[in-house]
């Protein structure tokens, strides 16, 4: 297929672009490089530096058969202090993209959604029937796009899939995490092992879990990418599918810390601090719908996630 990848210079976008190219697809990456990196765009992909707000100029007349939409702001804290950035970029920008797709007759879109749409659910594992109740503008902006996709599917025949990610980690060869600031647990732990930081912080040790620290579902970015390719192949006109992507198993912060210590051979000192407001005890996905609709299931575990992330950090100096 001839495909457009928005946000393809970012972490997940670059990994999925590399997988699409390896699968024989023709790919154009559209990214404004506000958070992405030009060197992260895989060789073989055409690159266009532009905002998604200007999608029309880069979609009409190109003959795209599908879009994978990763371009978004994604810092939870920033979305609380500056929600206007998230409505303007994630919602208004995606509206411009959808209008361009409608005018150009592009038939399918795969959307990078998030478990943040669920907010702080009381029950776990989380299914697609769990009520969406986001507690910040980031999650709310992604949920707003989900609603847009449902309406465009009904009215205009768009084949849409929203993939709601849980915690993503790992790397694929030269493509991995290079966020600034870095807010994810695994790369921050590995930064300590690499010597970029003296210690890591554990927020909350009084949760109702086996060791008192919060429980999260960690998915390898390679497994995540495979789900996108399967979603492309199984999408249906006039249908909007919402699908969780996770392993169905959780690991506590201490378990992740121990995995990082094992892989790196570094003690990775940890400082215990109070819980952060709004951090739920457990966020673990049910992936039954992904298995049913996409024929997908994860293949890589926590140690592979950590090992690939550590290899990427060492080889690229990403710490």
UniProtKB/TrEMBL annotation:
Q: Which InterPro entries match?
A: Epimerase_deHydtase, NAD(P)-bd_dom_sf, Sc_DH/Rdtase_CS, UDP_G4E
Which domain of life does the UniProt lineage start with? Bacteria
Write down the EC number.
Answer: 5.1.3.2
Q: Which residues form a coiled coil?
A: none
Q: Which reactions fall under this protein's catalytic activity?
A: UDP-alpha-D-glucose = UDP-alpha-D-galactose
Q: Which cofactors are reported in the record for this sequence? A: NAD(+)
Fetch the PANTHER family from UniProt.
UDP-ARABINOSE 4-EPIMERASE 1, UDP-GLUCOSE 4-EPIMERASE
What is the name listed in the Swiss-Prot or TrEMBL entry for this protein? UDP-glucose 4-epimerase
Record the organism: Brevibacterium salitolerans
Please name the gene that encodes this protein. galE
């Amino acid at each position: 297929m001839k495909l457009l990848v928005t946000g393809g210079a970012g972490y997940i976008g670059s990994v999925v672009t590399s997988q699409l190219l390896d699968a024989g697809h023709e790919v154009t990456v559209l990214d404004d490089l506000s958070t992405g990196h030009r060197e992260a765009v895989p060789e073989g992909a055409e690159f266009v530096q532009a905002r998604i707000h200007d999608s029309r100029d880069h979609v009409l007349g190109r003959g795209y058969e599908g879009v994978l939409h990763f371009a978004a702001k994604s810092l939870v804290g920033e979305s609380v202090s500056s929600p206007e950035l998230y409505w303007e970029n994630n919602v208004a920008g995606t509206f411009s993209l959808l209008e361009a797709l409608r005018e150009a007759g592009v038939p399918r879109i795969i959307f990078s959604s998030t478990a943040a749409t669920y907010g702080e659910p009381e029950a776990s594992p989380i299914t697609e029937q769990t009520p969406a109740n986001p507690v910040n503008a980031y999650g709310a902006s992604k949920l707003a796009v989900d609603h847009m996709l449902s309406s465009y599917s009904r009215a205009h025949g768009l084949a849409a899939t929203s993939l709601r990610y849980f915690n993503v980690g790992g790397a694929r060869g030269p493509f991995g995490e290079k966020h600034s600031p870095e807010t994810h647990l695994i790369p921050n732990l590995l930064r300590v092992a690499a010597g970029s930081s003296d210690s890591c912080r554990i927020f909350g040790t009084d949760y109702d879990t086996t060791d008192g620290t919060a429980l999260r579902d960690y998915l390898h970015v390679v497994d995540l990418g495979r789900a996108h390719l399967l979603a492309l192949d199984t999408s249906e006109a006039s249908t909007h599918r919402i699908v969780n992507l996770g392993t169905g198993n959780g690991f506590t912060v201490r378990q992740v810390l121990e995995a990082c210590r094992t892989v790196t051979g570094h003690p990775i000192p940890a400082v215990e601090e109070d819980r952060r407001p709004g951090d739920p005890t457990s966020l673990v996905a049910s992936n039954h719908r992904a298995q049913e609709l996409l024929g997908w299931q994860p293949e890589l575990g926590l140690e592979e996630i950590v090992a690939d992330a550590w290899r990427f950090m060492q080889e690229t100096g990403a710490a």
